[in-house]
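I'll show one example:
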Amino acid sequence: MKKLNIVIAGATGYIGLELVKILSKHPKVNIKYLCAQNSIGSKISTFSKDLKRYRKLPRITNINNVNFNNISVLFTALPNGKAHKIANKLPKNTVLIDLSADFRLQKPNEYEKWYNESEFVKRFTQAGETRANAESTFSSIKALRSSEC
């Protein structure tokens, strides 16, 4: 099996950094882009000394600079409400795994009920089955920690 090309958006936050640590050790993952809104051009090791040993990690870039043509998975570790704005811009073959609360509800009408945001309901419905919240993909995250996936 070839390596999965991935992007981590929100890479400089706590959850993003933990994800970088996990995925940089995985033999079947190729981190192509690390994204953040600030610190563009910086090394990720600036934010965590644990990452200094991974010299091949890309420098931080803005998500608008990502070429998604060869990206298998986008992990988002962004503040709530940000991932759904990215979801509609992704190619259908790119899987989105959101580590915030954006996609944690299974039915669009539940989101509208709890958060009173009908615009998201439309986006949620259009995003399709290639969008998932980490809560519903916990076993996938666990599998990424092992070299068996």
Summary: DSSP finds five helices and six strands in the chain. Helices lie at 14-24, 83-87, 108-115, 118-127, 138-145.
